[in-house]
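Could someone model fe (ii) ion with this protein?
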Amino acid sequence: MATYSYGGCIEQAYRVNWKIKDVLGTVDFDLSRPWLPADLSGSAGIFCLNPEEKRKLTHVEMGAYAHLFGFLETFIAPLMVDLALDSEGEDRQAFEALTNFASEEVKHMHLFREVSRRVDGRLGFPLKLIDGQSEVARAVLSKNKGAVLLLTSAIEWFTQHHYISSMNHSDELDPLTREIFRCHWMEEAQHARLDHLEALRLFKDMTTIEREETFEDLVWLLATLDGLLEQQAILDCMNLGRYLGRTFTEQERSEVLESLLKAKRHCFIESGVTHPNFLELFLSVTTSSQQMRVQGAVGLLLQKRPIQWNPSD
Ligand SMILES: [Fe+2]
Ligand SMILES: [Fe+2]
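Reply:
Sure, complex below.
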């Protein structure tokens, strides 16, 4: 089992801490390059787009990718404040590490809002992005804290995987995009370790009934996340049509939508719940029947077809 410490996390957090102005600097996004690596994009599965249109698709997808992080951080920041209060007066290092974690997430939300503003400026029109983060955060935070923490752990581990596996060594990727997610990756590394420590602390004192509730809630949270991805995939499809100045046939639209949603499910669900460090935590706090229930629900989500296109959207 991995051994992390609150003290180690806070020390490393101070070592890598960055400012938004340094991340964004003076360089702008480069329209001649992809803004999202091929394995995080739906472009490979789309045959009705030419190579230039596929590159433009990654511009639209990265705008949504960055926005979705800010969207999810809207519940992660208050979750960490809540967890920090559990440690106040009991464990000084845990309190400091968790409050710093919350503060970094607030900074990330500001960063991703600024990224959205710059993306819109570069593309020349405002991307349609899912809204309602405060309402979603309220609903998420009404669920069992252990479930929200497990979802958070999956999210923070996939930030590590996406940067290391797909962005770090890509010569082709837009340099500003790589810098944004490099900086995010550096701070998220401590977040993922703190999620692990806090999950072990919470699960240690949970009753059997509370554990059952946790996994019911985790399935609900994953389905809710999937619903958000569906909404954004539809908006991406609309954004792409506007960016390309192209009206898709029904068949083309369904091909684009299906591939976009598949890529988003891979990015935001599959690459998190299959990350080895998430699995190490998940398997240590679950019984085999709970594992089967959650894994079965995830399997169904990943197979689900996109929702029907609604022309009034
Ligand atoms: Fe973050
Ligand atoms: Fe984070």
